[in-house]
# Entry
Amino acid sequence: MTDDPYTTSRTARTSNSVSGQARIGHLVQADSIESLTVHQGAPLPPIPRQLRPEVAHFVDREGEQERFARSVRARRGAEGRPLVVAVSGLSGVGKTTLGFRLARAFADASDDAGHGCGALYVDLDPLRHDGVVEPADALAELLGPLGIAPEWLGATQEARAKQYWERTHGTRLVVVVDNARYGAEVEPLLPASGDSVVIVASQGRLYDLDDADAVELPLRPLPQPDAVRLLGAIAGAARLAGEPEAVAALASLCDGLPAALRVAAGRVRRHRRRPVSRLVAEFGAELREKGVPVVEAVWDAAYRDLSERACGLYELLGAFGVPVPLAALPSEDAEDAVEELEEAGLVDVRDERLTMHALVRAHAERRARDRDPARVRAACTRLVRWYLRQAQHADRVAAGARLVLGAPEPPLPDLADVELADSGAAYAWLESERHALLRCVHLAYADGLDDVAWALCEPLWTHHLDRPRHADTVAAFRTGLAAARRAEHLAATVRLRCQLARPLWETGAFDEAARELDAAVAAAVLLPTTPDGRKLAASAREFRGRLQAERGAWEAALPDYEAARAVHEEIGNAYGVMLLTYQLGRAEAHLGHRDRARDLLEQAHAEARRLGRDRMTARTALALGQVLEQSEEPARAGELYASALASARARGSAFEEARVLDALARLARTTADAAAADAYEASAAALRVRYGAAGS
# Structure
């Protein structure tokens, strides 16, 4: 977790000494340390409990619940592998609903026994690209609630798996994995606790699940009596009491699928004066005349009852494909339409956004495609453009002023902008809306809105730097790059090749990253010779140098770093000059050229201070201190480390704080200050335990 010390020879001594009691909050002194700051580590975050609220009406499944309870009792006190419960069945049969009910029962029973129990949830469908889930992204979904800060998140699947095992070892957890297709998708998500339970929902049996002891709970449609009970619970028993035969026929038409029964019951409740037998006749006519599947007739009947405004919203939700926030809908039009869809049982409102069952969404998408595609396309475009405007706003608030290529999206009539008070709120918005933003990239590209597709990648880049999800980023940026190339937007093409390269090299795809960066550098020579064009060309060279550095090819990184710095000098970009001077200094240090490294890092550090760049001032101080430490100037190295430590703490960057503490501990060891070294190492270790660094 630390920068390399460049060499291993350390012979110099300083007058550092420790006296008095170690305590919190005292700044390190370069020559004499009267007391030390020792972080005991903030308390671990509270155990997450990501359980969806109980559905209003639930019937049957007593046998499955009892079998689950017996399996849990039989495994109590087990060690090693957690209990895996595989709930399978047709879409709409209630797998996820039962999964959450079982999870809640397990968690509540644990609480009654006096043991805390956490609950985690991950839906694999939004993480699926070309039918495949990247385990590293699924692990990121689980690690965030477990208190792993973004900067501590491992870059690879292996690193994240270690973090997950460390965080879950010895805990009591229930993990709900929704929409799994293969056992191989589930295996990396098992917590390292035999006292935990993993509940997996899938349409088919997971034959490749590597667990002979897994409890399989295949769900069948509800039997007739239970289907009738569910209809009565939702529509009202009094409403159905006079027509038992019609109610039974309605239950049969719904094939015992709870998702269909809820919509049918909503229609019964909505038409209070219409006999149930008439509704059944309408469903039957749909089946006879159009030959549609029975359940499809339920959706169609509910759809025909909608007002024109509600139809439009229903079709939009189907075409958009992911939950839509209420804030993205025109306020006057939305309230009545949302209420109508809720009453019909077609949507749920959760966390201020509209969600649909997968079966209902598929029906809505078919209606959007068949009835008025042009209208739905216009509504989708409006929604995509609203998202672009909000994302650009979040990008400005989160990242501050920087080179932006996409044209600002103008405000949309009747739609308010999201209020973002500070960078924290902006980053949180990008995280909460990332699935929608990713969907927008692909929708915009499919609709030929190339400038929108690639422009959306600019705020997604800011999000990736804060919350890396590599598979998501690669998929979106490949689409954005295709859009930029199709639009023949040279600058966007260069930038997206560079930005695509980073998640590629972070996941070890160095050769593919190199191809993208070579193409970016080659294309950059065609950019206009404006300051922005030249800055972008310099950025491409810097990215290629970074790739070489990531590969450990420091000598190969130098020409690109030097070329990029020369461009920044010519256009008067002081920050760019400082940054590339720092990169050059690090490269020279890794190559063992201490004098050259010292000169460069002295320049970078002085310039970072002059520019008021706190983070870069701290980073250059750390790098320069490491060179000075090897050049037998430990006293000044200690001063630089002390300033970097103070900066990291002032900015609340625990990740950088741990790196500086490592450097201070190393320096103390060279001066035989064992007490100081122990204190620094203990403080760094406490931070790593708190924030979940693998191997802590």
